Amino acid sequence: MTDQTSPIQILDFRLFWITRFLSWFASSGMVVIIGYQLYDLARNDYGMSVERASFMLGVLGFVQFMPMFLLTPVAGVVADRFDRRLVGALSIGVDAVMALVLALATWTGALTLPLLLGLGVAHGAARVFFSPAVSSIAPMIVPPVLLPRAIAMNSMAMQAGTIFGPASAGLLFGWQPPLFYALAAAMLIIGIVCLLAIGKLPVHAANRDTHPLRMVVEGFTFIRGNPFLLGCMTLDLFAVLFAGANALLPVYARDILHVGASGLGQMRAAPAVGAAIIGVALSIRPLQKNVGVIMLASVAVYGVATAVFGISRDFYLSLAMLAILGAADMISVFVRNSLVQLRTPDGMRGRVQAISSLAIGASNELGEMESGLAAAVVGATGAVVLGGVGAVAITLIWAVIFPEIRRAYDFHTEQKAPDHA
Predict the structure, then answer these.
(1) Backbone dihedral region for residue 258 (phi beyond 0: left; psi -120 to 50: alpha; all else: beta)
(2) Structural domains of the chain, ranges and CATH numbers in brackets
(3) In 184-228, at which residue ranges do the beta strands (DSSP E only) sit?
(4) What single DSSP character describes residue 48?
(5) Model's pTM, two decimal places?
(6) What is the pLDDT of residues 167-196, one digit of tens each?
(7) DSSP class per residue in 273-306
(8) Which of 231, 211, 227, 316 is nearest to 273 (CA)?
């Protein structure tokens, strides 16, 4: 038998990759349109000011985060106790039903703010179970030697979906508003079929005999005992918490850059374009040395690009800054995900991945809430610029209080490699 040199040679990984791409395509596109519809509905049907409508975008981020905050421990235990394919398929199914409801409500003109916020809660609940279950499948179907490339390819699937999903959503919404939701539902159903077609995965019997509360404690204890991993997760949490501009993109699209729904789709896709370029490079040549310093630098670049985007009034400069911050974020994501997958025993991957997803969700959804609140006080521009500056400050602070990050040499060695003559 010829040795496999790429994850793409493995059938189960190809099915896994397709599922990742389709789910991200559908969900990222739906999030864009939901945000635009909520902001537009608040401005037109509810007569809200720009500041109050911006605040509602923050509320949307908050209601999507709450299921993550409440259900993350449960989701991690579920991913480690049951077939991860089934858990992921059920999660995708919730999003598929959500897409059908949105298509019908948009078509009939039945959209309301409570409905959009309620569906935001459902989406948050689905994603909290999807991430630890599906993200933990890759190490089970890919040999360890190919895992870094598989992680980069997984990120490429996510970024490709995030590129084409929002762009397609903006274009289709401008043509026929319900159309993208119908397309998303179809893609999610195909994703379910591909996920279930993956060969049956083993379930760790020991986890069935361990009390769920003990399993939760074990996951947190593992991360606490790994300063590098803890530092990486909390760095992403606080940096993106302050520098999250995504929630305010509808404000920039409608009232600052005046580019409408199609422009919003391009802005939401721009970070993924930058991330995809870096993802291709990492899939060919994964990072191996000085990963800690590289990650810190990437987060600092993320903050600077966010601040420049905040003050930009040129659409193309804004797109460029969004692409740069997406590229920087991709490097940080690659380092963090590689650490989670390579340093975690398979029997604990669901719990550790759930905690990692909570950090990501907190940074994204709570970041959207923080951006909405800040925009209501200092305006959208002030909120984005101050957030970018805050991300740079957080990076400098973390470099001091988590020296393990600065000294990290590679994904297996927590200290700098010694010099050799």
Answers:
(1) left
(2) 8-199+208-407 (1.20.1250.20)
(3) none
(4) -
(5) 0.69
(6) 788 888 888 889 999 999 999 999 999 999
(7) HHHHHHHHHHHHS---S-HHHHHHHHHHHHHHHH
(8) 316
